[in-house]
Amino acid sequence: MAERVLMRNFDRADSHTLAVYRQHGGYAAWEKARTLEPAALVEEVKQSNLRGLGGAGFPTGAKWSFIPKNHTGPVYLVVNADEGEPGTFKDRYLLEKDPHALIEGMLIAARAIRSALGFVYIRGEYVQPWRRFSGAVTEAYDAGLLGQGFDVVVHRGAGAYICGEETGLISSLEGKKGWPKVKPPFPAIKGAFGQPTIVNNVETLACVPPIIGRGAAWFAGLGTKTQGGTRMYSVSGRVRKPGVYEAPVSVTLRQLIELAGGVSHTGRLKAVVPGGGSAAILTADEIDVVMDVDGLRNAGSMIGSAGVVVLDESASIPEALMVLARFYAHESCGQCTPCRESTGWIYKMVHRIVDGHGRKDDLDTILDLARRGAGTTICAFYDGAVGPYISYIQKFRSEFEALCRA
Amino acid sequence: MTASALQFSAEQLAEVRRLQERYPDRRGALLPVLHMAQETFGHVSLEVEAYVAGLFGLSPAHVHEVVTFYTLFFQQPRGRHVVAVCHNLSCHLAGAPDILAHVKARLGIEPGDTTEDGRITFQAVECLCACEAAPMAQVDDRYELNLTPEKVDRILEGLR
Amino acid sequence: MPSVKLTIDGKEIEVEAGTNLIEAARRLGIEVPHYCYHPGLSIAGQCRLCMVDIEKAPRPTIACNTPAADGMVVHTQTDRVKETRRSVMEFHLINHPLDCPVCDQAGECWLQIYYMKHGLYEPRMADEKVHKPKAVPLGPHVILDAERCILCSRCVRFCDEITATGELGIFNRGDHSEIGLFPGRDLENNYSGNVVDICPVGALTDRDFRFQVRVWYLDTTKSICPGCARGCNIDVHVNRKRPHHAGGRRVARLKPRFNDAVNAWWMCDVGRYGFRRVDDADRVTVPQRRNGAERLDAGWDEAVAAVAEALGRHAPDEIAILASPDQSNEDLFALRRLCEARGIRQVAFRVPPAIASADDDFLLRADRHPNTRGAELVGLDGDAAGILAAARAGRVKLLWVFEHDLLSSGLPEARPALERVETLVWSGANANATSALAHHVLPLAAWVERDGTFTNFLGRVQRFRAAVEPLGEARAGWDVVGRVLAALGTPGTGSRAEHWFRALATSVPAFAGLTYQAIGDGGAMVAGAPPTTAPTPPGRRAPATVTA
Question: So what's the ipTM on this one?
Answer without folding.
Answer: 0.96
